[in-house]
Amino acid sequence: MRDEKEILAELNQFSSHSDFLTVLLYLVGENLNCSTDQLATRNFRALLNENEITFLFGIWLKNRHKKIPSTESFKIKAEKVHKLMDEYHLTFLKHFPKIGEFENFHLEFRTNPASVRETVFYAPSGAYDYQFVSFLETKYSKDKDWLLTNKNFSLEDAKNLYISLKSILNFKLNVKDFGDNYIELYSFNFNNYIFKKNPNFIKILDSLSFGENEVLNENYNSIGDLNQFKIRPVIKTDNSYIIPLPYTVSEAIYDSPFYWMIDDKKYRNKAQKNRGDIAEHIVAKLLSRKIDSKFIHSEVEVKEVKATTVTDIDICIVKDNKMLIFQVKSKRLSQLSKNGDIATFEKDFKLAVQDAHEQAILPYELILSNKCYFQYKDSGEKLELPEVNEIYSACVVLDSYPAITAHTRLFFHKEKVTPITMSIFDLEIIMEYSKGFDTLFDYFKKRTQNSKYFIADSELGFFGGYLRTNLQKRPDSDIVAFDADFAQRFDLDYYKPLMEKYERKFPETIKNIGRNDYCFCGSGIKLKKCCG
Known about the structure:
The protein is α/β, with parallel strands linked by helices. The protein has helices at 4-15, 20-31, 50-63, 74-93, 105-110, 113-121, 129-139, 144-151, 155-175, 182-185, 193-197, 200-207, 228-231, 246-262, 268-287, 335-338, 342-361, 364-368, 404-411, 424-433, 437-449, 459-469, 485-503, 506-509; strands spanning 187-189, 209-211, 234-236, 240-242, 296-304, 309-319, 322-329, 372-376, 382-383, 390-397, 420-423, 454-456, 480-482.
């Protein structure tokens, strides 16, 4: 087997070809584009994922200025690149410690840089694109004035831009035939009705784009390195924006404002405080979709009889002598962690998950023995709660963290219980399918009690297993693993209605377009000669 450097050298060579952008756009179509009905049945193991395609765009960004001519068919090149990416993945797997060779396999695995990089890069998608959009205005609700003042566009503008771009791309994929002209398929000409109607869309796209002559990703050599294409996933030409990866755009729209704000030294501290406060607000709001708010309590201090504070509970639900605790964190993996720096990885995970779990379970004994009382942290008002007989908890993070489930299993391998860890995006889907508190509590109970029996790569894998099997143990198995198919069901059941919810509104956006207006599809041609 060839090593990582040899394969990267070949990928760098391919990405230096003058037609490599076409190769990439073809790979996007072959691996990422499909109808919503196909989402739940595609064999994703045989396809390149979003991260792999984004990685290839990052390499192209590094080498595009070389423009080496090539006579080989772009489709043949795309097939070779796909095989190289499959081979590249294997270079990480060969470094993994072998189960059985080490007494502390999980420790060896999580302290192995190649293992950490692989789990982060090849993890399942952490959220749907329209989830990023739906949470955007809430996430930055306390920062909207800063965005208007410093970026001259609103959160609503950013949301509407993404809905328009994704709706138009889906229209083009389903209605128009571009043949092999993939650049035109993903292009949005400046002469465009939606840009004319919404001039702020241009400001947002400019903040997420790079020009044809910009030199970027010079030191981009590995999947763990910072990829500028994830930060600025829009290609700006002399007359168009090329947007090949809408999902990456939705993620950039969701993440970028925070980084813009912390670059402002005067606003940095406020931005960080707002981020922590809003995370708890989002979780409470999600829970209240199916659970009466009178049972949900935020910012609660657990105190012993002697008035000593034992711990703070971010959010708890107490009903029918049962309690669910949610500790909410806004910490995410840093770039050093993604690149396999073990010390940073362990620190980041501690701040994101371990501290939250320890904080959640610390008051269990006192609460169950009825030897404490509760009060609201801000007001100091005493909170009267019924006696609690059962408690379960979860750690929830604000941002997408696709590998959180795998990492939790590694860090808590020797513990009696592996904690429930998820993002707000996972929680939203769980609440969508929950009938109320009883369903949620039953899931947390079975998920916790069987945390060493069932294995899955994501919390949605566990929840999909719960919906299908009720997490009942099998008499013929010592352990049961839920594969990606258990989470894949949500691609159709959850994502298709979510997409339709947003995109059905798009026709209203263009209902007043005139025959002599430039077409909404981004062709740069007037409507009467294009999609009219």
